[in-house]
Design brief:
- By secondary structure, the chain is mainly alpha-helical.
- It contains 19 helices and no strands.
- Helix 4 crosses helix 17.
- It starts with a helix and ends in a 5-residue tail after the last helix.
């Protein structure tokens, strides 16, 4: 089957599974992954191993756009206005999760590189899942506000730690050579290129009117970063992250524009996650039950203990920290992106790293919404949940 027809089938299946997932209350990312499993070698086999190999560069392209959007969370003015509690909670929770999963993975694999990579993939929280539940119940209160702010910063910390870990592990494993190597000496050019791209956008977007022109400028700038390095390198996504951070601090844009831009990117995300779903191989996960179990348990403990520690450092109630940890369980897009990027130089069996994170994501995307609703209900911030779980205020 030709590649264009394969892409059309991926898009159609993704749209159908997105509709089905929304109808039965599952996160859309889970629907996309299920669509990929149906089309891939595990299912009817329309997406073959040849197609998967041909689409490898897509990982870097999509990663660049996702990290550009993550960079928009580096709004210094917004972070200052929210006080120190969200930043301390996000930092403590992220680093505790990273350390807990890294130690658990090391005890199973005895490999520092694998342990650090798995630790990084455990940090991110799925903002879309959290936002969906908060939108459904419209809670109000200090817990809700802290959850919203912490989730936004969570991905920023994960990306920063991920960049450092992948630079070090890629350099160590590949000896300074290879497609996955960000390279310690490349950090300055990456920061410079991302900063210049963000500064250019902040100037150019003021000169142009209309959604089409502005979207085209952003897309063209992000794609130009891909041209500066080999498309298989980690540098373009990291440069895109810096560009998004510089842009958001130099230019204020309406939420309506970013919402429309994200809708445009939805088709890219859809095809990408269906593509990743085709990589699912249950035999790989079943062949490493100790590692998968250690990863999931350590992530649960890291989120809970880290959020409690962060709230304690912010002079907030430890109980609030426990509930924040419950609300940060969902795992999604960025974890999979980091795993897909690290897969290229992982010393594990081909596909195992990505499948561990995919299995964990499916588990946490299903269990996560229950953690959020229980946290909000027991903290008495929405009457709908209180009635559902028979919690008395």
């Amino acid at each position: 089957m030709s590649l264009p027809l394969t892409l059309a089938l991926i898009a159609g299946t993704g749209i159908a599974l997105r509709w089905l997932a929304s109808r039965i209350g599952l996160p859309v990312a889970v629907g996309y992954l299920l669509g990929g499993m149906i089309l891939g070698p595990l299912g009817i086999g329309i997406i073959t191993r040849v197609h998967l190999d041909e689409l490898v560069p897509v990982t870097t392209v999509v990663s660049s756009f996702i990290l550009f959007m993550v960079g928009r969370e580096l709004d210094v003015a917004k972070i200052k206005s929210e006080g120190s509690a969200p930043a301390l909670t996000a930092l403590a929770e992220s680093m505790t999760t990273f350390i807990a999963v890294s130690i658990a993975a090391y005890l199973v694999t005895d490999s520092p590189a694998i342990s650090l990579i798995l630790g990084v993939t455990a940090i991110p929280t799925a903002p879309a899942t959290v936002a969906m539940i908060l939108h459904q119940y419209t809670p109000r209160g200090p817990l809700t506000k802290l959850i919203r702010s912490t989730v936004a910063l969570d991905d920023v910390v994960a990306t920063a730690v991920g960049a450092a870990v992948m630079a070090i592990t890629g350099w160590t494993i590949l000896g300074g050579n290879g497609h996955a190597n960000l390279g310690l000496l490349n950090v300055i050019p990456v920061l410079a290129a991302g900063g210049l791209a963000g500064a250019f956008l902040s100037i150019a977007l003021r000169r142009f009117r209309g959604y089409g022109h502005r979207s085209g400028l952003i897309i063209g700038t992000v794609l130009s970063l891909l041209a500066l390095w080999n498309i298989s390198y980690l540098a373009p996504p990291m440069a895109a992250l810096v560009a998004g951070g510089v842009l958001v601090n130099r230019l204020r844009y309406s939420r309506a524009f970013w919402h429309k831009f994200e809708e445009f990117l939805d088709l890219i995300y859809l095809m990408f996650f269906v593509y990743l779903g085709a990589h699912v191989e249950p035999s790989l996960v079943l062949g490493a039950p100790a590692l998968v179990g250690a990863y999931i348990v350590a992530r649960l403990l890291g989120k809970g203990l880290g959020a409690t520690l962060g709230c304690a450092c912010s002079r907030l109630s430890p109980t609030m920290g426990t509930y924040v940890g419950m609300a940060l369980m969902p795992q999604g897009t960025l974890s999979i992106i980091l795993a897909a990027m690290a897969e290229r130089f992982s010393p594990l069996a081909p596909g195992l790293l990505l499948n561990i994170v995919l299995a964990s994501t499916l588990a946490f995307e299903i269990l996560g919404p229950f953690g959020i609703t229980l946290a909000l209900g027991h903290y008495h911030e929405t009457h709908d949940i209180n009635r559902r779980f028979r919690v008395r205020p």
